[in-house]
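Review form for a predicted model. The reviewer records the input and the model, then writes brief findings.
Reviewer: anonymous (R2)
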Amino acid sequence: MDEYLLGRCSFAEQRRRRMRVFLPEVDLPVPADAVLDALIAEYVQSYERAWKVYPDAAACLRRLRALPTRPALAVVTNGDSHQQRAKLARTGLAAAFENVFTSEELGVAKPAAESFLGACARLGSAPNQTVFVGDWLEVDALAACAAGLQGVWLDREHSGRPCAPALRVSSLDELVDGVAASIPRS
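Model under review:
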């Protein structure tokens, strides 16, 4: 995945590379690329059928969009742009977001500050007036803080790990209740 995020290979090739590493670890031979692609396609079908929305996600987005001064909502992801947009569409969340920014489109991946700053620039939002919510402490919340945004760690596991200077929420319900006051008003 790191090679893909650095732009050194395609999304399809990074999947093949993962299979080339994984298969020998479970004592299976590595087949030709065409067979790998077929195996990956079968996996992707199962993976996509398993896409689900956390129960608090849609309600949180509705509540944010209903605020008197509605914040701009966007996705910043290191995932493949086609796959991420398909996931949002299939789960019914696409319409909630004004933008989806992928690392390939931004030209840089999280946790690099440029990924957060690039998304802010495209949104027309000052970093210090932007809240970034993510479920990966280092790559999302702390990296957002380091870039000058308000990072919020969605810690669904209640890990107890220290996360300062990021804020911690264990559900998106807490996000709206506890962070809505700091969401940009412009």
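Findings: The two ends are 36 Å apart (CA to CA).
Further findings: Residues 142 and 175 are 17 Å apart (CA to CA).
Recommendation: see findings above.
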